[in-house]
């Protein structure tokens, strides 16, 4: 069968297509069709010729199979050091073989590549720190995902997520009306406790444009209220856009580069329209990576920088604390042992570890580092889209053992994790392994301990 009703090489581009696709609960029919999906060998060969550039070719040819990347991978450690989980083996047996065969592969091989690319790698890029040749298997797996997506071999949930971005410019089915209504609702919910607080919409020339993860308006609207409260306390001039508010990119996880470009362009268009001085990205690692690190290249910006200076939320908090815009009441600092999970996408890939440590020094009396830490920290186990893929749930749960052991070694019961995917993974880690921990974003913790400026009114509940 060349292509199926659900599993095919066509992107999801309309609401009707999304609706039809989601009737296939759990992707049962989708994966059944995938087993018969024929590889378009000429197209795959042509894509390799077009897109496989010197860097990837050099990395594939340079890798000596020395295995020094093995212990860098949490999948390798969590799976009893299975040699098939060594990063170099995983990439050479998939992308390396695909290149060696010049795209002349069959359906079974492409499904194997899919299972490895999404089920055995989160593209956390930790392996690159330890490769003596500077090879980054995470980048190569990202490239492999793009090849697989173009041929229709992509996990069911990732195809849905990519389609959401194409249709809604968000990872979930949230319309502009839904977003505006949610902001207005949260403003109303907060006004009794914080008179004068607002969530400004489409204000031009604000100091800050604030962009979020679609999970917030969909599932955690209180996060919007918390962000508004902290901006209010800090006296910031800020706004949210009515369109272009979503920072995340499941399209990036899926390897759908066209949808990734469309997504980031929606954010950049909001910046062009409202002309803020800076952008602040909510507590989400991959959102920051997609829009700040990868996004400019998808959008064709030659200097590789977004249209305005952009801060991850930890950078804004650290700055607000340093400048005195936010002040911590010493009596309200966290007294219990607390640890901090370093997100791969804004710590390892963006170098924001020091900002995170400055925050912890201000808010915690007994801060306990994980081992290893900072850019050497292990992935939570849920990155790269793995959290949401049912086909690889057991692989993810097994991989989380490394993060479980890191947390247990600190003795802390509270884990701070300013990233949505990491927050979800650590929540699920507790559900699976029941180690007795709590987990939190920064915003709700900060609200409990910041000093309310004298000129602002706060009505205690």
Automatic annotation (TrEMBL):
GO MF entries: 4 iron, 4 sulfur cluster binding; metal ion binding; oxidoreductase activity
Residue ranges of every copy of the Cysteine-rich domain listed in the record: 338-422
Coiled-coil portions: none
Tree of life domain: Bacteria
InterPro entries, per database record: 4Fe4S_Fe-S-bd, 4Fe4S_Fe_S_CS, Cys_rich_dom, Helical_ferredxn, HmcF
Keyword flag Magnesium: no
Residues annotated as domain 4Fe-4S ferredoxin-type: 60-135
Taxonomic path: Bacteria, Pseudomonadati, Thermodesulfobacteriota, Desulfobacteria, Desulfobacterales
PANTHER family cross-referenced by the UniProt entry: FUMARATE REDUCTASE IRON-SULFUR SUBUNIT (PTHR43551), HETERODISULFIDE REDUCTASE (PTHR43551:SF1)
Organism name: Desulfoluna spongiiphila
Protein name: Fe-S oxidoreductase
Pfam family, one: CCG
UniProt KW keywords: 4Fe-4S, Electron transport, Iron, Iron-sulfur, Metal-binding, Transport
């Amino acid at each position: 069968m060349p292509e199926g009703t659900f599993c095919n090489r066509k992107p999801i581009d309309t609401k009707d297509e999304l609706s039809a696709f989601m009737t296939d609960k759990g992707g049962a029919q989708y994966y059944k069709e995938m087993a018969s999906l024929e590889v378009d060998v000429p197209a795959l060969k042509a894509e390799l010729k077009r897109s496989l550039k010197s860097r990837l070719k050099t990395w594939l040819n340079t890798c000596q199979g020395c295995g020094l990347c093995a212990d860098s991978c949490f999948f390798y450690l969590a799976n009893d050091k299975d040699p098939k989980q060594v990063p170099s083996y995983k990439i050479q047996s998939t992308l390396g073989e695909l290149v060696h065969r010049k795209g002349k592969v069959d359906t079974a091989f492409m499904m194997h590549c899919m299972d490895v690319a999404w089920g055995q790698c989160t593209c956390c890029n930790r392996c690159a720190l330890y490769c003596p040749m500077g090879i980054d298997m995470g980048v190569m797996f990202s490239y492999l995902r793009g090849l697989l997506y173009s041929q229709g071999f992509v996990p069911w949930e990732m195809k849905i997520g990519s389609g959401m971005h194409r249709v809604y410019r968000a990872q979930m089915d949230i319309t502009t009306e839904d977003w505006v209504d949610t902001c207005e609702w949260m403003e109303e919910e907060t006004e009794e406790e914080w008179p004068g607080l607002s969530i400004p919409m489409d204000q031009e020339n604000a100091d800050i444009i604030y962009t979020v993860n679609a999970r917030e308006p969909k599932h955690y609207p209180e996060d919007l209220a918390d962000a508004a409260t902290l901006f209010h306390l800090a006296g910031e001039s800020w706004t949210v856009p009515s369109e272009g508010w979503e920072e995340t990119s499941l399209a990036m996880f899926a390897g759908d580069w066209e949808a990734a470009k469309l997504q980031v362009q929606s954010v950049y268009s909001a910046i062009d329209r409202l002309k803020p001085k800076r952008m602040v990205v909510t507590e989400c690692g991959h959102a920051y990576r997609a829009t700040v690190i990868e996004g400019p290249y998808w959008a064709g910006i030659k200097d590789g920088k977004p249209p305005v200076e952009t801060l991850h939320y930890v950078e804004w908090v650290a700055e607000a604390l340093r400048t005195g815009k936010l002040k911590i009441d010493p009596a309200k600092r966290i007294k219990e042992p607390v640890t901090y999970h370093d997100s791969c996408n804004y710590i390892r890939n963006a170098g924001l570890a020091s900002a995170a440590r400055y925050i912890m020094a201000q808010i915690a009396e007994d801060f306990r580092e994980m081992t290893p830490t900072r850019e050497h920290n292990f992935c939570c186990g849920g990155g790269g889209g793995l959290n949401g893929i049912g086909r690889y749930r057991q692989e993810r749960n097994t991989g989380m053992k490394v993060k479980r052991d890191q947390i247990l070694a600190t003795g802390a019961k509270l884990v701070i994790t300013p990233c949505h995917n990491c927050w979800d993974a650590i929540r699920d880690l507790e559900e699976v392994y029941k180690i007795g921990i709590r987990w939190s974003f920064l915003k709700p913790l900060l609200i409990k301990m910041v000093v309310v400026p004298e000129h602002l009114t706060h009505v205690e509940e």
